[in-house]
């Protein structure tokens, strides 16, 4: 079974840009599908110019576009629109994340396409859905983080903060993959394609379920608390004697008793009325944190790690990205860039027994690199 490509034989046509749709279609390319990425003539997907960090290639683009073929089209031209029709007549999946209404105005709306091609699965990724007052709003990742309240529960006290990666784009991509896999299974049962629709806002809203429930039913929204947790203590980063920061997370009373007895060697703290249960520790968080911080400040990181590990207390280092780059648990996989150079991406997080431990990622295509060949093939 080694080397199995479960999506082999599938044709995915993706009219895509930025991150959400490209990352989803890249998953199918990695699984053996043929993915034809449709780009604007000239500059192509604007994500190609986000940065030049990876030996001249944009980091986002290298991450989300390896293993695809690039076809430049202007679907406002009749001959290019006709070529797209021929592609879709043979496609299994059509994925798009253009501005709301753009794909319908171009004559390639998902409902009309599935009437013409009953086995076709369509996937539309939008910012805020396809109807309502926000449908026409631009939906960059940061703005969706703001609108959904994600920034309101992140950051430091009094200073809400953007999450440092494009989580709404990435989450929407993952939801698209889940939706498309369900649609493929459904087609295997019924023989009919179906529509997959999702938005960045719905993705963020799903993640905000717990803060929303606290607000609606308990009358109080969680506030940004930095490395701390609004309802757990001790929980956060504490500085050691040699200037390192270790994070601990005490999830239950058993762990709290072990921390006091086996790490602090002060079992009496566990029954102190100020700290004897989770609610008391949160109520007295300044005192709780001051006590923990004082203990950490007298010992080096190595000493604290040894004590925490011996007591089976959950901990982790608060690493910089540079620290993360040399982390022993970090898995990497090589990718070939547009100009033939190689770089290392983070290896895909899901591992299968039928794939090699270090997967072979496809090459990142140049703008329109496959246009001539595809036009000839689908003439």
From TrEMBL:
Q: Which InterPro entries match?
A: CoA-transferase_III_domain, CoA-Trfase_fam_III, CoA-Trfase_III_dom3_sf, CoA-Trfase_III_dom_1_sf
GO molecular function annotations of the record: CoA-transferase activity
Q: What domain of life does the native source organism fall in?
A: Bacteria
Which Pfam families does this one have? CoA_transf_3
- TM regions (residue ranges): none
What keywords appear on the UniProt entry? Transferase
Q: Which PANTHER family match?
A: SUCCINATE--HYDROXYMETHYLGLUTARATE COA-TRANSFERASE
**Name of protein:** CoA transferase
